[in-house]
């Protein structure tokens, strides 16, 4: 909570109508102020540098930039934001109901996971944000059931969070060399290559493209997006 007693909220979603719906819901609480919104992931860090933020509402399938339509590497991004802003609370609101992805996102440091078709929860979004800001967690009922499920897809379920971060970066920047991607993770290129090779073995594939495709099909990194629902 900020010195003025308000909970500052930032929203990242690539659909302006969805952002407008969230802003409308959150405006019902005098304790909450939406200080900034963004449609592209590359806008997020400059916003967080400029505005002290208590709660970040984060969609999964947001493009990196106007030039790069690939979904941003959410697992890497959450881990990085938690290092930069240890008091930031992250609430993911997504259309994706993939048990492996939900678990990995929570393990990366998110405080909750809401499905976009959970209209009951979205109507009560202001109270959910208040809960998150006070250190609580919140799930849509279905997301919680998936999170607790012990029937994770066997293939790929044992990938480490660092291997998944490396794969998510590769999916976001498919034409970028490992030497550059390793710098984004602040690790040696050899370490990055070892993370990928270990992931290839666990996924039973031989190439980066095959690893990305298989991880997406298993739902352990951001899958290929269907049409997004509109939230009002």
Written account of the structure:
This protein is an alpha/beta fold and 232 residues long. The chain folds into two domains: 142 residues, 3-Layer(aba) Sandwich (Rossmann fold); 58 residues, Arc Repressor Mutant, subunit A. 46% of the residues lie in helices and 12% in strands. The chain is built from eleven helices and six strands. A six-stranded parallel beta sheet has the order 2-1-3-4-5-6, sandwiched between helices. Helix 1 links the parallel strand 1 and strand 2. The radius of gyration is 17 Å and the shape is globular.
Looking at the structure, what is the overall shape? Answer: globular
N- to C-terminal distance: 27 Å
The name of the CATH superfamily of the largest domain reads Response regulator
State mean pLDDT (0 to 100 scale): 87
Number of strands: 6
> In percent terms, what proportion of residues is strand?
5-15%
Which spans of ≥5 residues are poorly predicted at pLDDT below 50?
150-154, 227-232
CATH topology of the largest domain: Rossmann fold
| Spatial sequence of strands, sheet with the most strands | 2-1-3-4-5-6
Query: Element order, helices and strands?
Result: EHEHEHEHEHHEHHHHH
Looking at the overall shape, the CATH architecture of the largest domain is 3-Layer(aba) Sandwich
Structural domain tally:
2
User: What structural class do you assign from the helix and strand content?
Assistant: alpha/beta
Broad CATH class of the largest domain: Alpha Beta
* Main beta-sheet annotation: 6 strands, parallel
